[in-house]
């Protein structure tokens, strides 16, 4: 799922709302996307921002340069790299 999130962000110009991402990846529960996004954010592969308040809050996911490199290198983005 995490690779699909990164790939979808690249296809959508580097950023996407959580609602659009759920629809594009056929994710039924936003909490599932939130859990994956949290792990990707900890790895500095995406940045997650929230705007608004109350019922009008929205979440935006943006791929980072490190995320772009991970996708371009076609490797598991959450696997630590061995030192050279």
Overview of the structural elements:
This protein has helices spanning 2-11, 18-24, 30-42, 65-72, and strands at residues 15-17, 46-51, 58-63. Strand 2 (46-51) and strand 3 (58-63) form a beta hairpin. With 84 residues, it is of the alpha+beta class. It has 4 helices and 3 strands; from the N terminus they run H-E-H-H-E-E-H. The protein has one domain (2-72): Orthogonal Bundle (Arc Repressor Mutant, subunit A), CATH 1.10.10.10. It has a 3-stranded antiparallel beta sheet. The model has no long low-confidence stretch (mean pLDDT 84). The chain is 45% helix and 18% strand.
Major sheet size, sense and barrel closure: 3 strands, antiparallel
- For the secondary structure, the number of strands is 3
Beta-strand fraction estimate: 15-25%
From the alpha-carbon coordinates, what is the Rg to the nearest angstrom?
A: 13 Å
What is the fold-level CATH name, i.e. the topology?
A: Arc Repressor Mutant, subunit A
Please, what is the CATH homologous superfamily? Winged helix-like DNA-binding domain superfamily/Winged helix DNA-binding domain
CATH class: Mainly Alpha
For the structure shown, list the relevant keywords.
alpha+beta, 3 strands, 18% strand, Arc Repressor Mutant, subunit A, 84 residues, single chain
Task: State the gist of this model.
With 84 residues, the protein is α+β, with helices and mostly antiparallel strands.
């Amino acid at each position: 799922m995490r690779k699909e999130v990164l790939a979808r962000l690249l296809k959508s110009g580097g950023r996407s709302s959580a609602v659009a991402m759920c629809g594009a990846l056929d994710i039924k529960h936003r909490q599932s996307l939130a859990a994956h996004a949290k792990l990707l954010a900890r790895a500095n592969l995406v940045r997650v921002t929230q705007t608004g308040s109350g019922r009008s809050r929205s979440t935006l996911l943006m791929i980072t340069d490190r995320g772009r490199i991970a996708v371009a290198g076609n490797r598991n983005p959450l696997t630590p790299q061995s030192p050279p």
